């Protein structure tokens, strides 16, 4: 995984003290974002005592208190707020220097952890990997299958470098590259065909539903549709990821909301049917990465390649 590996001997120069070190700046910003020493330690793959030591050393060097410690977590003092902006600029400058150096070398080296929120075939993962290898043979890829909300969380904690996600809202700390508006469908077990007529929302609400994560963009779409009709779900199964939901639908355990193409495969297999209604559903698919790492050479290479691979995909939500 790409990370900024910082040796304790790496200096940031005479910002305020010749003894200040870059890893202290990174630790400080991690605590700011997590509001917790424990969470920051997990994010940085270190221990809470180590994080506390870094913060204490930085406060001693600067001669100010950066955080108010309370049961609610680590909250910035007014002095800490002033330092935060400068610290972010320092870290961004270091990343820019790294990016420029890589550009001058004319090559991108390292590895990328990429989250997949759907099937590799649908996401063109093979085409993406092949194209990236041709352009940047020194860059290694590792794909991990997760649902969108977990991919976004992992990008924020730097456990993933980037990933494919569905999301309905703006994410200020995440850079989103739009790829395609993906049509969605409600897949219903074939055994319920005569019990749930098309466009009969009341009948649909009477049967079991396969629920998803509370942060799932798909869930937001279908919840809105139910709420408009003053209806609620009946569910006794929860599963994240289209593949798992599709299997549960095929086994007759409930209806589920998923990508249209996957629902169509179930219909062709005879295990489910696509329930038709007057509404059309779709979600925007994005390629996501941490905004402050957009100039990282490997991430930039991945984004450029993804843009080429997906350049001819529709911006309108159309069923193929």
Outline the structure in words.
The strands form three sheets. Strands 3, 4, 5, 6, 9, 10 and 11 form a seven-stranded mixed beta sheet that branches. The chain has a two-stranded antiparallel sheet with strand order 1-2. Strands 7-8 form a two-stranded parallel sheet. With 320 residues, the chain is an alpha/beta fold. It folds into three domains: 22-105, Arc Repressor Mutant, subunit A; 110-177 and 284-309, Periplasmic binding protein-like II (D-Maltodextrin-Binding Protein, domain 2, 3-Layer(aba) Sandwich); 181-283, Periplasmic binding protein-like II (D-Maltodextrin-Binding Protein, domain 2). It is globular and about 75 Å long. It has helices at residues 22-34, 37-44, 48-62, 78-105, 125-135, 148-156, 201-205, 217-228, 242-250, 260-269, 297-309, and strands at residues 67-70, 73-76, 110-116, 139-145, 162-166, 174-189, 208-211, 234-238, 256-259, 272-275, 281-290. Helix 1 crosses helix 4 and helix 5 crosses helix 11 (297-309). It starts with 21 loop residues before the first helix and ends in an 11-residue tail after the last helix. Keywords: DNA-binding, Transcription, Transcription regulation. Belongs to the LysR transcriptional regulatory family. This is LysR family transcriptional regulator. Residues 20-77 form the HTH lysR-type domain.
């Amino acid at each position: 995984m790409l990370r900024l590996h910082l040796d304790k001997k790496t200096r940031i120069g005479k910002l305020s003290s010749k003894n200040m070190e870059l890893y202290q700046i990174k630790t400080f910003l991690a605590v700011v974002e997590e509001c917790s020493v424990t969470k920051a330690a997990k994010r940085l793959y270190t221990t809470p005592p180590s994080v506390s030591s870094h913060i204490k050393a930085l406060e001693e060097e600067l001669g100010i208190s950066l955080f108010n410690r309370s049961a609610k977590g680590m909250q910035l003092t007014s002095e800490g707020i002033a330092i935060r902006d400068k610290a972010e600029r320092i870290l961004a400058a270091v990343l820019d220097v790294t990016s420029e150096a890589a550009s001058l070398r004319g090559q991108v080296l390292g590895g990328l952890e990429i989250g997949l929120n759907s099937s590799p075939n649908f996401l063109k993962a093979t085409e993406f990997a092949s194209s990236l290898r041709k352009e940047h043979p020194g860059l290694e890829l590792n794909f991990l299958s997760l649902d969108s909300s977990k991919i976004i969380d992992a990008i924020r904690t730097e456990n993933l470098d980037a990933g494919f996600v569905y999301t309905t809202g703006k994410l200020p700390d995440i850079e989103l590259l739009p790829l395609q508006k993906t049509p969605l469908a409600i897949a219903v077990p074939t055994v319920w065909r005569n019990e749930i007529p098309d466009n009969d929302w009341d009948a649909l609400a009477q049967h079991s539903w396969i629920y998803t994560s509370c942060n799932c963009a798909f869930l937001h779409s279908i919840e809105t549709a139910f709420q408009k009709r003053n209806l609620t779900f009946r569910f006794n199964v929860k599963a994240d990821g289209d593949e798992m939901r599709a299997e549960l639908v095929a086994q007759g355990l409930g209806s589920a909301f998923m990508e249209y193409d996957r629902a169509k495969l179930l219909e062709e297999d005879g295990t489910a049917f696509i329930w038709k209604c007057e509404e059309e559903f779709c979600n925007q698919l994005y390629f996501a990465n941490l905004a402050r790492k957009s100039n990282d050479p490997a991430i930039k290479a991945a984004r450029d390649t993804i843009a080429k691979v997906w350049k001819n995909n529709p911006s309108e939500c159309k069923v193929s």
